[in-house]
Amino acid sequence: MKVLIIADPLDNQRAGIHVYLRGLVDQLARQETEHEYILVRERVDPDLPLRQVALPNTRLPIGYASFRLFVLIPRLARKLKVDAVFEPAHFGPFNLPGSIKRITMIHDLTPILFGEFHRWHSQFLQKTFLKGILKRTHLVLTNSHNTQRDVERVYPFIAGKTAMIHLGLSEQFKPVETKVFQKRLGLERPYFLFVGTIEPRKNLGLLLDAYDQFREAHTSPVDLVIVGQKGWKSEAFYEQLAQHPYRADIHLPGFLHFEQLLEAYSHSLALIYPSIYEGFGFPVLEALACGTNVICSDNSSLPEVGGELAYYIADSRQQGSESSRRTGIVRRRPSSARPPTDDTRPPRSLTNLMLEIAQQTPEVLRRRAAGSAWATRFSWEKYVEVFERTLD
User: Fold this and answer.
1) What is the per-residue pLDDT across 44-74, written as a single tens digit (0 to 9) for each?
2) How far apart (Å, rounded) are the C-alpha atoms in residues 125 and 109?
3) How far apart are CA 390 and CA 228, in angstroms?
């Protein structure tokens, strides 16, 4: 089968969809396959041993991006005589003849379920086009059981043409000893870590509140490092940050390149990920692979990724009512409940979990040591094996 992959996120994103697509295409390039893959993207990467077609996506003239999506890419698919087109980023594919199989990847439904966390045009486009995309697609891939349930609940007509494959993780995520990142930032004390785009869905108002309470209760200072780029609707977070009583101990280094991200994970007390909803949650898996404890929300797909090793916050939607008023977050529409695990302890408040992990008890250290082995369950090799079976 000849498959065209719309690979624009390789060139214009840095967040989760970029990480997903990079892992997928790198694995496709490494292993033998009976299928032929062609990437259409904004620019060709000469180091990637897959066939690539450059189709620039300039913003000028006005309307060119839509023309490219609705006309140029379908024209290219017909010219290349492909058997299938795979859209890894929700929005498409479009305008294909019935002889070409349409495959759409749905990472999450946040623009539909939590529209208040997104910019207006993102909500509008998803609500306008997604139903039609899913009606016309031949196969819908999802990245977690939770996302699959959400998609089938909101769009019940697609039942029977969905497939769930847990995402993989690069084998390069592992504990490291180097501390170049810590030296650059001047980090000499223990620290908690957050990794992700700074936007309302990540629930960082709760993190700031919990850090304040933790510092008041803990006997020795511990810093907080928030890694990620500034996202949309983040003004309330920065206002709260500016007024924080421990602002001097909160560090925002921005986006980190891979080597420094490994260092940030490896030497942190824990990754704290209080997100209100995630389609998968790469940072949780990355942190575990680097031998780091994880505190995350007890919602959506996160228990699938964190398993029995993560510490779960008791419904992050309901905690931090004061931060809710400041950030405008409305915690509602609970997602699928956490599936049973061997860990029977109930979820607790974020502050209490931070205090427990800071004590570095034997149980905390046990979970930390077990993370790398758990992460091996999520490999790109396994992902591609299932991915290719779904193409047939």
Assistant:
1) 999 999 999 999 887 667 778 889 889 999 9
2) 12
3) 34
